[in-house]
């Protein structure tokens, strides 16, 4: 008899954390952070004792799947962590960045609270960079290879399969003994969009008794990738030829590497007008170095025409700007600059400085290539704000604004259905990691198209499998 408790990503898309218990062994799958509206849940105590968890299996390095691991360690977890080596490398970058942001944010709030005499009421950061260091140095990490069989403990084994979502991502097939029979449960993590841009397609899952599947886009289809790429290339060429500049807010992991891959392709094919491309994000630069280290896992398309230095993401016009001075230096360029900078949703980071310097000029273009959540500056611009406020200054928006959909790292409804349709002997399906409305739609489509019943998992719900 096995049970699963879900402590996140239930009727929402963040906070992934599932606890599987088989014969007294406690196996956690992901320990992610809540983001957006539910952020406050991160500070709550875990609903279990972290010291009791024997193993943590990580599907991939996105913050909503790894973001609470340092908290877990801080509060007593001493087990082993399993993650592909690319996931481990990316997780370190992502967790350090998250710790830094939380610590800086705390310092700012602390100064304000001091002036009001309310400093004792402040909630401390979830963890600090030192806690992240401990997570990697004091805990034993094991790096499974894709498609290899591992025995976790007596009677429990697993295989990581390539999920094609971000570098290192995996879905996990976990097998255990139940009254003498071997049973398999699959945790999808986040499964990729078959766009073959930087990462190969999602692997097939051939057999499972039980499936926990993400449903981020359970209610919609993405626009075809070739159309997306055409839109992207058109804006770049048009803006640069008209002596403008292009600003692209981008997430550091995966989206940035996809853009670099496309821009390099344009450069190699002679489609890119004379310009300079700036990757103005230290975090994206670090993430790109990890992608480079695992070049053998990237698509042929991405590896074609690799230059003599052997680096996948370099081409003549590309400049990585590390220091704040180098970043400020971009402001002196009048035209012909393509600037990729974070944060992806524009609620901070170097992109806001570039907006201040360029968004008021109608020759320029802002290109959104990722989701913009409610309440972010990115969303405000996408929704057509004529004025934005940056660092206390009102700035008019005259640059052209472009929203390019279709770059998603997640499978769409059709993609998830196709993946599930290949799984043999599937008996139970549980929907996680999706907004409730999207999950309801997916549940009915799953019944209609594949004749499978699914259950939408609730927060803290205990499922017997
Ligand atoms: Zn993800």
How are the secondary structure elements laid out?
Layout: E1 2-6, E2 18-22, E3 25-29, E4 55-57, H1 63-66, H2 69-74, E5 80-82, H3 85-116, H4 129-137, E6 140-142, E7 149-153, E8 156-162, E9 170-178, E10 181-187, E11 210-214, H5 225-241, E12 246-249, H6 255-268, E13 276-279, H7 282-293, H8 300-303, E14 318-320, H9 324-329, E15 337-341, H10 350-358, E16 365-368, H11 377-382, E17 387-390, E18 393-396, E19 400-403, H12 413-421, E20 428-432, H13 436-450, E21 454-456, E22 462-464
Helix pairs in contact: 3-4, 3-7
Zinc ion binds at residues 60, 62, 165, 190.
Can you walk through the features of this model?
This protein is an alpha/beta fold and 465 residues long. 31% of the residues lie in helices and 22% in strands. The strands form 4 sheets. The chain has a 7-stranded mixed beta sheet with strand order 6-5-4-3-2-1-22, with no helix packed on it. It has a 7-stranded mixed beta sheet with strand order 7-8-9-10-11-20-21, with helices on one face. Helix 3 runs antiparallel to helix 4. The longest helix is centred in the N-terminal third of the chain and has 32 residues. The mean pLDDT is 95. Bound molecules: zinc ion. Zinc ion binds next to loops.
């Amino acid at each position: 008899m096995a049970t699963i408790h879900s402590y996140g990503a239930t009727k929402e898309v963040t906070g992934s954390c599932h606890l599987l218990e088989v014969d007294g062994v406690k196996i956690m799958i992901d320990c992610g952070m809540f983001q957006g509206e539910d952020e406050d849940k991160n500070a709550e105590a875990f609903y279990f004792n972290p010291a009791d968890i024997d193993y943590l299996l990580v599907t991939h390095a996105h913050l909503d799947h790894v973001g609470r691991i340092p908290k877990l360690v801080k509060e007593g977890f001493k087990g082993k962590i399993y993650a592909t080596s690319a996931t481990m490398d990316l997780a370190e970058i992502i967790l350090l960045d998250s710790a830094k942001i939380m610590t800086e944010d705390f310092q700012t709030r602390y100064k304000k609270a001091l002036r009001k005499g309310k400093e004792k009421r402040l909630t401390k950061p979830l963890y600090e960079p030192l806690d992240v260091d401990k997570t990697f140095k004091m805990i034993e990490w094991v790096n499974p290879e894709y498609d290899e069989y591992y025995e976790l403990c007596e009677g429990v084994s697993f295989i990581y399969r390539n999920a094609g979502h971000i570098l290192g991502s995996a879905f996990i097939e976990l097998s255990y003994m139940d009254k003498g029979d071997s049973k398999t449960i699959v945790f999808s993590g986040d499964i990729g969009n078959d766009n073959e841009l930087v990462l190969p397609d999602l692997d097939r899952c051939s057999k499972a008794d039980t499936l926990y599947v993400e449903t981020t886009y359970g209610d919609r289809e993405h626009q075809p990738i070739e159309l997306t790429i055409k839109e992207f290339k058109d804006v770049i060429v048009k803006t640069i030829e008209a002596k403008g500049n292009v600003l692209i807010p981008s997430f550091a992991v995966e989206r940035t590497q996809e853009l670099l891959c496309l821009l390099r392709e344009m450069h190699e094919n002679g489609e890119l007008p004379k310009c300079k491309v700036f990757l103005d994000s230290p975090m994206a630069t670090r993430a790109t170095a990890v992608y480079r280290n695992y070049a053998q896992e990237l698509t042929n398309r991405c590896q074609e025409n690799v230059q003599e230095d052997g680096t996948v993401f370099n081409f003549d016009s590309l400049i990585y700007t590390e220091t704040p001075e180098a970043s400020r230096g971009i402001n002196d360029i009048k035209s012909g600059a393509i600037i990729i900078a974070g944060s992806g949703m524009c609620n901070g980071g170097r992109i806001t400085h570039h907006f201040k310097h360029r968004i008021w000029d109608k020759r320029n273009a802002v290109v959104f290539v990722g989701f913009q959540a409610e309440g972010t500056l990115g969303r405000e611009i996408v929704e057509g704000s004529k004025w934005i406020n940056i660092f206390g200054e009102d700035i008019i928006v005259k640059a052209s604004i472009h929203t390019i959909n279709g770059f998603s790292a997640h499978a769409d409804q059709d993609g998830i259905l196709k993946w599930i349709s290949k799984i043999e002997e599937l008996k139970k399906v549980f929907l996680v990691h999706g907004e409730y409305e999207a999950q309801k739609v997916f549940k009915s489509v799953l019944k209609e198209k594949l004749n499978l019943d699914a259950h939408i998992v609730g927060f803290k719900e205990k499922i017997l499998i």
